[in-house]
Amino acid sequence: MALTRTAPDRARGTRARPPGAGRPGWRRRRDAIGLVFALPALALFAAFAIYPMLRVFQLSLYDYNLTSPPVWVGLDNFRFLFGDDRFLASLGASLFYVVITYGPAVLLALVLALGLNNRMRGSAFVRLLYFAPVATSWVAVSVIWRLVLQPEGLLNQTLNTDIPWLTSSTWAKWAIAIAAIWKEVGFFLIIFLAGLQNVPKDLLEAASLDGAGALRRLRYVTLPLLKPITVVVLVMAVIRGFQSFSPQVVLTGGSFGTEVINLFVYKTAFASARMGRASAVAVLMFVLLLMVTFVQLRALRRSA
Amino acid sequence: MSTGAMVVSRKRRPVGKVVVFTLLLAGGLVFASVFVYAALSAVKPADEVLASPMRWLPSQWLWSNFTLPFEQAPFARYYLNSTVVGVSVTLLNVVTCTLAGYSFSKFAYRGRNVLFFVVLATLMVPLEVIYVPLYALVFDLGWVNSFAGLIIPSATSAFGIFLMRQSIDGLPDELLEAARIDGAGELRILRHVVAPMMVSPMAALALFIFMTNWDSHLWPLLVGNDADHQTLPVGLAAMQANNLGSGGLPMMMAAALLALLPTLLLFLVLQRKFVEGITMTAGIK
Fold this sequence. Notes:
The complex is a heterodimer.
Chain A: H1 2-15, H2 25-59, E1 62-63, E2 71-72, H3 76-82, H4 85-116, H5 121-131, H6 138-148, H7 154-159, H8 172-197, H9 201-209, H10 214-242, H11 246-251, H12 261-271, H13 275-303
Antiparallel strand pairs in A: 1-2
Helix pairs in contact in A: 2-13, 4-8, 4-10, 4-12, 8-10, 9-10, 10-13, 12-13
Chain B: H1 3-11, H2 15-42, H3 68-72, H4 75-106, H5 112-121, H6 127-140, H7 147-151, H8 158-169, H9 173-181, H10 186-197, H11 199-215, H12 218-223, H13 232-242, H14 248-269, H15 271-281
Subcellular location (chain A): Cell membrane
Region (Disordered) (chain A): 1-26
Keywords (chain A): Cell membrane, Membrane, Transmembrane, Transmembrane helix, Transport
C-alpha cells in the first residue's frame, strides 16, 4: 500500500516541473529503454514487410529475373497484363472463387451461428464438428478432398452422380469451391458466434416481452446488431479469397480454369522468372484489396 | 428484472429447438464424414479405396498403412522440419510481440504512435502482395533453402503486437511503478511483473501463430524446397504431385491425417484459446 501511494506522488512531482525542461532525465532514460523493447519487432518489420512493400511498387516498373540487374520498362508490365488473356482469366478465376466460396460460406456460417448460439450441451459438440476443418492445414485437407472428388469418390457416390469434378473446365472451379466452403465455414462461424455474444440479452428479452416472435427479434434486433461484424467478415473473406493458393495447387495444379491470381503470380515469378511482371500483378492485387476494404468500410459507416 | 422473461421462454415447448438442433447435428455429421472417409480410406487395402459401389468399412484393417509415409517418403523429415520451424516462429513471435506490445503500451517516447500505426498498417498487406520482393531479399541474403529463410521473416506479427498491446494496456501503471520503486529494472519488470500476468494472451498468440505456421505452404515452398528443408505442406503436396512411393491412396490419406493431427489435437485441447485467437483477428473483444 505504501508503495502504491508514493507512485502518484512522484508522478505529480514530475508534472510540476517547468515545461521547458521536458521529461526528467530518469523518465527519458526509461522511455528510451521502452523504445529498445520495440526494436526487434520494428527491425523485422522494416526488413521483411515495409521494404518489400516499397520494393514491389518499384519492381513492377522493371524487367527483373533475380540474377541480372533490373531493367526499367515503365508501365510495360501493366500494359502487357491488361492485354494478357491468361492474367485476365486468373482475375476471373479469383473473382469466381471469392464469390462462389465465400458467399455461401459466410451465409451458412451466419445461419449456423444463429442456431448454435445457445448453452445446450449438444451445441458445444456440434460446434466442434464445424470448427474442426479450421484447425487443419489447407494442403492436408486438399489431399483428402482430392480423394473425395475422384470420379468414384465420396461425393459422386453419395450424390449418385458421375461428375469429373477435377478434370473438367465446367466442374473444377465448383469442386474447389465446395472443398473451400467446407474448410472455411467454421472460421466465420467462430466470428459470428462471438458477435452474437455481444448482442445484449436484455434487448432480446424486452423485444420478446413486447410480443416480438423469434423471426421479428432476428430481423429487428439481432441482424442489425450483427451488421458491423458482417462487414468485417466480408472484408476478411475477400482478402482470404484472393490469397488462395494451396487448394488450387493440390486439387488441379491450376488447370481447368482454376489458375487463380495468386497462382498466376507464383508461376510468373518462379516458373517464368518474370519478377517485374509478377510484382505488377501484386500491385494490382493490393490496389484491388484496398478498394474492396474501403468500399466495405464506407458501407459500414453509412449504415451505422 | 429479466427472470420473468426467462421463465416464459423456459415454459415454451422446445419442439422447434429440437428440430433445429437435429438439422444442425446432421449438417455437422456431413462435415465430419469427410474426416471419417479419409480415416477409413487410410486403413483400406489400396484397391478398395475407390471401389464402386463404395463401402465405408475396409475388408481388412491395415493399420500398418500409417507407416507407409515414413517408409516411402521422407515423412519424418517433413515432420521434424515443420516442428522446428513452427516452434521457433512461435517462440520468436511471443518474445518480439510481447516486447513491442509492452513498449507501445507503457512507454511514452517520441514517435510511438506513428510506429504503432505503421505496424498496424502492415496488417493490410498480405504476404501474397509482397512475396516476390521478399523472396528476392531472402535470395540476396543467401537464405534460400535454409531455416533462417523459413523462420526469420515470420518472426514477428502485427496482429500479435496489437494483441499484446491491448492486453498490457489493461495492467494498472501503479503495479509497474511499485516495482520500479522497489528498484527493479525495466527488463526485470517485464519478466517478473508483466509476463506472468500476460500468460493467457501469450498462449492465445502462441496457439494462433503455431497453427498459422503449420498451415503455411507458399512461403516454405519458395525458401525451403530442397530435401533438407521441406515442411509438411510442401512435402505433402510434393508426394501428391509426384506420386511419391507406391503406397498409393491409403498412404496419401495416412500422410494427410498425420499432418493435420497436431493442430487438430491442439484445437481440441485448447478450444477456448483457439476461438479467442480467431475472434481477435476480427477485432471483436
